[in-house]
Amino acid sequence: MADIVDSKNQWKAWVYLSPAIALLLVFTVWPIFNTVRMAFLEGYSGLMNVGGAKFQFGIGNFRKVLQYQRFLSCLKTTSLLCIITVPISTILALLIAVCLNSIKILQKPLQTIFFLPYVTNSIAIGMVFAAMFNIVGSFYGTQNEIIVTAGIVNNIIEFLGGKAVNWINYGSTYLANMTVMVIYIVWNALPFKILILLGGLQSVNKQYYDAARVDGTSRRRIFSRITVPLLSPMIAYVVITGFIGGFKEYTSIVGIFGETMGPADDAKRLNTMVGFIYDSLSTNSQGRSSAAALILFGIILVVTLINLRVSKKRVHY
Q1: Torsion 108-113-116-117 (CA) sign
Q2: Domain span including residue 144
Q3: Which of 81, 154, 216, 254 could form a disulfide with 164 if both were Cys (CB 3.0 to 4.6 A apart)?
């Protein structure tokens, strides 16, 4: 009888869900379908399509994208940022989460402080980092000499006896630019990972630690044999989401370098795959940008599957 009543009222559920379903179809399902369609229309351009041009079905867009030297450079930069930042941010987040879990008095205020970057606009944070690493400006002194005002990072380096580094300005090196980006991305990725790992730590049964202390187990062994295995599902989650977010990196570089995605003397030096897609859209090359988006999706899918494969052997549920 209950099944009959439920079946009669199913239409109400569909009515309630219809606005959300309509929005998903219009703003999610259709864009995905249209992206795949444009990727396989060779040389597709929105303006040319409006003008009545016809496009052949094929894989020419993918071939062109893979042949672009700029795309290979974007792939290299994106891959380097992922490979460097994900392990560093995960290890730091794990250590900070363990420390926060052991501090009971100031745990809540410290959690709030660490979580602030996550709720702050990425562009605004990037501009702050640009000011910290930038040569802020220069002016003429009393004897017409040029006095350079450095950012806080160079001020600290000079205070410690070092020499100021040209991090992001005209004439800066690729290594200096990447160093700034790694520091920023790691710092920006910490809040979310700390929150996830700290939540996992607080759900661990305390009896494991009590038994280890009774046996006289060292803190290092407790960390490696109890904490890490019990947190392995959360660690696997933050690693996978870290790689996904890393391959979609874009706003952080724009926040520091602006739309040039690099210093003035080498525009697009730090361009990423997402930046390459936006650049293709700005030149009205929707077919090329759609192909690049599908290639990016394929790379993220492969990396995610590899992580899932590895996690099956390393994760303890």
Answers
A1: negative
A2: 135-168
A3: 154
